[in-house]
Every structure is written in structure tokens, then in C-alpha cells.
Amino acid sequence: MPNATYRGAIFRGPGSVDVIDLPYPTCGDDDVIVRNLMAGVCGSDVSAYKHGGDDHMIWQDHEFGHEAVSEIVEMGRNVKGLSLGDHVFVNQGKALRDMKRMATVGSFSEYIRIPQCEVGESVLMIDNDIPVKSAVLVEPFVIGTRGALNLDPGPDKTAIVFGAGIIGLSAAIMLKWFGCPKVMIVDISDFRLANAASFGLVTCNPAKEDLRARAFAEFGSQQTFFGERCQAQLYLDAIGMKVAIDNFAMLAGRGASLAVVGVHHEPVAMDLMAVCYSNWKIKGCGETAIEEALPHILAMMKSGRFDLSALVTHEYRVEQIAEALVMGANAGEAQKVCIAF
Q: Could you tell me if 236 and 310 lie in one domain?
């Protein structure tokens, strides 16, 4: 018999979260109940805790969290295509039939009821043999995969990624997975760069070395209308800061592509003559559906080529959610912070 209650984290507003007992949900004929195994702390969760959640659809007085790997523990009699014990990704806004609940699915709670559950829509299957500490990274890897695919990567192209947070690392790893023979990641956190190097990524800390010189040394250079430029063809901004755009403009040669995955909250100036004459291709974060990105991600995870579990640097109990949200902002010590159930 299930417990009468479960522990759930409730977002109360900036600097305030509660962990309370909630009534264990009833599983209807068309529903499933999942037990969350591990949930990632997203940058949007951190931002909500610091500044407020409305901009991220993290609503006050709601259960929150949206990056869990979960296990099926109850099924209604009409649900098809699932078995007890299956691992799944709860598919954000589609799971609760409300796109405004994308970030308040309840991944920071022990259990979630998924109404009118449909495999491939409400929940996405994850192979049980993928380690939980890897599977918990599915959601950030969806973002990284979108950005990587938007650059049309391949074995004849090299890449530079600005930002070694979890999104930057996921994009860089997927660029390698899609065939790019060399990928550089640029950041000022030596801790995160050390993680990046363990995945076979070239690293550069521009606070300590000349980025332009390092990029030329790694990728070669070319003469352009605007002077000497790097021969790397693909660039990805995973930080959403002006410095990333400035560095792209400094490095990019003719025909280079930039994917802007980091969210910029302020306008950034760009020389449109350089865009015109250099024929730069500037794109957004991509629009690959999560259902389309997932097979690429699961194939990469199952390959064993990358030890993704090393990216989970901190685990907390749900009762420690406030500590986890604080640590999630610590680029000097944390890569991916998770709640483990």
C-alpha cells in the first residue's frame, strides 16, 4: 500500500521554499503515478529563487522542478505501453496537460500523478540500463542538442562553445557526438573547464590566456576582408552575455555559423557590415522537438563514450532544496546539482 502522504517542495517566492507533506495521489484508470528518482536543479530554478519565478513559469505556491528521471510505480488499467518499474522522463508541459506548468511539474517532490498518460507524449521512455545520474541530464541535453543540430555539425567542421555550464557542456558533447573532430569550450571557471577537458574538449580560460591566439593555434587562421580570423566554422553562445557575441565577432571567419542558446536580457550591438561581408549565419537556440532530440541523446548515453555521471557534482535530499538552489549558482564548485530521492 502506498504511503498516505509524500514530501513535496513548494516554491513560495524569492528566497523561500517549503518542503511539506502532501496527500498521496489517487491513480485513475487513465493515469500513472511516478516516483522521482533524481531531479536536476535548472538555472531557471536558481533564478526564481533569487529574483522570482514568473518569467520562468515557476509559479508561487506550486510544486516545482522539471528535470527528473522517474520510475512508474502505479498504472491505471487503461494505460498502454508501460510496465511497473519503467524509467521515464516526465514530459514537462505535456505531462500535466498544461503548457504553463512546464516548470512546475513537481520534479522536486517524491511522486507525480500524470493524468491521461500517453507514452511518447506525457512520458518519454528512458532505457533502465542508463545510469540514473546520466539519465537525469536528459532535459539539459535536449537544449544542448537543439543548439548543436542548429549548426548542422559534422566531421568536416570544428566548433567553439562559449560557456562551460551544463548547457554549454551538453552542446559541446553533442557536437562531438555528431562528428565534429575538435570542439573548444571557453569559460572563466577552472573547475568547469577541468570537467570539460575530461570529455576530450579543448579548453580555454580567457581570463588567463589570449583566446584569439589559442583559437588560431588550435584551429588555424584565415585572411578575410576584416583581417585574420579563426578557421573554426561553428560557434555556440551558451551564456547569454555580450562577451560571447564579442568573441564570436573577433574570431569568426567567412561563412561561420553562430547558435545563440544562452538567453540575452539586454540588447547587444553587432557590426552588420561584418555580418554582410562575412556571410555569417546567426541562428537561435533551435526548435528540435524533445521527442526528436531524445533518440540522439539516449544513443549517446548508451554508447558509454562519455561518463556523464561525472557532471552531477552535488546531490541533496529534498529537505535540502534551499541549499541545492544556492549551490546551483556556484560556478566555482558546481556543475550539475541534483535532488536525489
A: no
Distances (CA, A) of 232 to 157, 221, 236: 7, 8, 11
* Residue 232, C-alpha cell as written in the block: 573554426
**Three-class DSSP category at 57:** coil
Residue type, 134: S
Q: Which residues of 296-320 are buried (b: 16+ CB within 10 A; e: fewer)?
A: bbbebbeeeebebeebbbbebebee
State the residue range of the domain holding 305: 5-139+290-340
pLDDT per position in the chain (341 positions), as tens? Answer: 567 999 999 999 999 999 999 999 999 999 999 999 999 999 999 999 999 999 899 999 999 999 999 999 999 999 999 999 999 999 988 999 999 999 999 999 999 999 999 999 999 999 999 999 999 999 999 999 999 999 999 999 999 999 999 999 999 999 999 999 999 999 999 999 999 999 999 999 999 999 999 999 999 999 999 999 999 999 999 999 999 999 999 999 999 999 999 999 899 999 999 999 999 999 999 999 999 999 999 999 999 999 999 999 999 999 999 999 999 999 999 999 999 99
d(CA 314, CA 137): 13
Is the domain of 36 the same as that of 121?
yes
The C-alpha cell that represents 83 in the structure block: 510496465
**What's the number of domains the chain is made of?**
2
Residues 122 and 226 in one domain: no
Q: How far apart are CA 131 and CA 127, in angstroms?
A: 9
Contact yes or no for 141/297 (Cβ under 8 A):
yes
List helix spans (H) across the chain. Answer: 43-51, 92-95, 132-135, 138-149, 166-177, 190-197, 211-219, 242-251, 272-278, 290-303, 321-327
What type of residue is 84? L
Residue 146 placed within a domain: no
